[in-house]
Amino acid sequence: MRLLKIFGATKDEVQLNPYIGSWAWLLHRLSGLGLLVYLLLHMWVLGSANSGPEAFNRRLGSVQAPLFHVLEIGLIGIIFYHMCNGIVITIIDLFGLSRRHKRYLVVGACLFLIFTLYAAALIIPRLGAHS
Amino acid sequence: MDGSISSRSALFWFLQRITGLVLAVFLFTHIKVLHFDFNFVERGLMDFNFVIERLKSSIGWGIFYFCFILSALFHGLNGLWAVIMDFRPTPAGRKAWLAVIWILGIAMVAWSISTLSKFYGGGA
To answer: What pLDDT score does A71 carry?
Structure first.
């Protein structure tokens, strides 16, 4: 019930102000929460070194299965979205550019696309090596 | 103003921006080295020896990752706190969340110091 209210409030936020700023805000939140979960999982995987090299190799090996190399592209995309959008927010905040924030958010989104496509172009050709 | 809630949140707002910019540099380096430059087709999959070789090549990597972990945990948990505060928790809920965040943060710092020391301590 409470969770429904939370989703409702978020939906209202975006519907009341259905412009790029609201979407950037929503995506920044979702990507941020996702990256926090990833950070904890990442530290859990690497932390297997605490149980010795064999445990580490087993766990690190399991997250280098083909599926994970595909997911890696999505992860890098989420990171670059949060990074580009965050840098744009910081620039807008520090230099008082909020009147033109839409333009800058679009620039951030374009940078995110360029970086992510570059990452995909590097990683996709390597995927065939798995088979 | 000193010690009041508003000056404290202004400081945390500022720290969120600073750690964000620092993380952009750390994370870009991390992604470049481990995802762009590292090619598992040529080098094979990563394993313990790969990590140890890279980290032991310079204590700089240890310092890099320690600062990286601290700023990432701060940025992530402070961001989580901002999200929670937007849902206007009750005072009791606030305290409970704050406790969860602090415990998680301290535990993860301890966990990562222990992990990093495994790669620098002795070799195994």
So the answer is: 93
Secondary-structure class of domain A18-130 per CATH: mainly alpha
Domain boundaries, chain B: 5-120
- CA-based nearest residue to A80, from B35, B13, B71: B35
Q: Which residue has the higher pLDDT, B121 or B81?
A: B81
Round to whole Å and give the CA distance between B46 and A60. 7
Say yes or no for a CB contact (<8 Å) between B111 and A47.
Answer: yes
Q: Where are the domains of chain A?
A: 18-130
Look up the pTM and report it.
0.90
Contact A64 B112 (CB under 8 A): no
Q: What is the mean pLDDT of residues B65-71?
A: 96
Under an 8 A CB cutoff, do B83 and A61 touch?
Answer: no
Instruction: Provide the 10 A C-beta neighbour count for residue A38.
Output: 15
Please state, in angstroms and as integers, the Cα–Cα distance from residue B26 to each residue in A7, A17, A45, A122, B11, following that order: 33, 34, 20, 20, 22
Give yes or no for a contact between A57 and B46, defined as CB atoms under 8 angstroms apart.
no
Which of B 1-60 lie inside 8 A of A, CB atoms? Answer: 17, 20-21, 23-24, 27-28, 31, 35-36, 39-41, 45-49, 51
* B5-120 under CATH 1.20.1300, yes or no: yes
ipTM for the predicted complex comes to 0.90
Residue A76 is predicted with a pLDDT of: 96
